[in-house]
């Protein structure tokens, strides 16, 4: 067996299952889960219809590169969304089966396992980054998020001898779980470091279309173009339809950026078997070409966060994030209680599931930056999220 499999930790939701083992939640309350970031808004009817209308695609083998029509559609969306002058659909775009599998696979493409490589990750983080590093024969290196810097990792504090070993840097903007968005200055620092040390940047942007300010979050390709890096050297952006269009089960996304890296990534994926179904490609074209359903979806999230956040601010240290659909709350300001105990008791007493923040992070520099925080995914309809918030308020009052 691959010895690197032994380095993988249980997924956060497996830890949560173990935490709740043997607990019978209070039957006076119906169950509400804020634990998993799975979109619960209805899938737009036109996307389902586009999928149903193209089932003949099931009779043909798809190409790994996807259809010209899909790549051209994605390139057009990138140009509209980020104000880019030109994206080459033939060389700078590749469809993928959701951002998760592509985030994992990129590490296998760009890392030489004999190079004593480091893979830099934000902390807290999406656990795929860590698993991708280990299974590529590398070692993850975690940079803690800093609440004083809007939860941005302090990359400037990383020592030179660490940067010299970094081959791949994962980041998430808007962030999971913090919701923070990188600024143009943040990007300039990372691009300068990438130029100096030669590492690849993997920008996970799957939450980019859920935001609360009038202006949309800055994207990595957009930042590169603004800084005169129109060929996107050593930069790959990852985007998905799952959150944007409420189709997590469709497994549709794309990667875009450095054409030289994407050429090698296509070679890897041709062997891996990462081709998207032609039927899903047709539905994806319909989704990327429509913005009205995205505007409506974003409005629902804005309504939820506007109503839920003030309720929780009565009892928790929590703020409206820049973007995304998570609230990242500190829970220990009123009582000596850990994030794990908070989640366990909330489930037992009020039948509400939240995810302990320490499950989403690792100890780095003597700190687990998720400790004494919880992540709440406001993915259900507004009434259910409000009910959960009221229960959390009641529960916190008992501490």
From TrEMBL:
Record flagged with keyword Transmembrane helix: no
This protein's record includes keyword Transferase: yes
Stored Pfam families: Aminotran_1_2 (PF00155)
Record-annotated Aminotransferase class I/classII large domain positions: 32-378
Cofactor dependency: pyridoxal 5'-phosphate
Keywords, comma-separated and alphabetical: Aminotransferase, Transferase
NCBIfam families assigned: DapC_gpp (TIGR03538)
Protein name according to UniProt: Succinyldiaminopimelate transaminase
Taxon lineage: Bacteria, Pseudomonadati, Pseudomonadota, Betaproteobacteria, Burkholderiales
Gene behind this protein: dapC
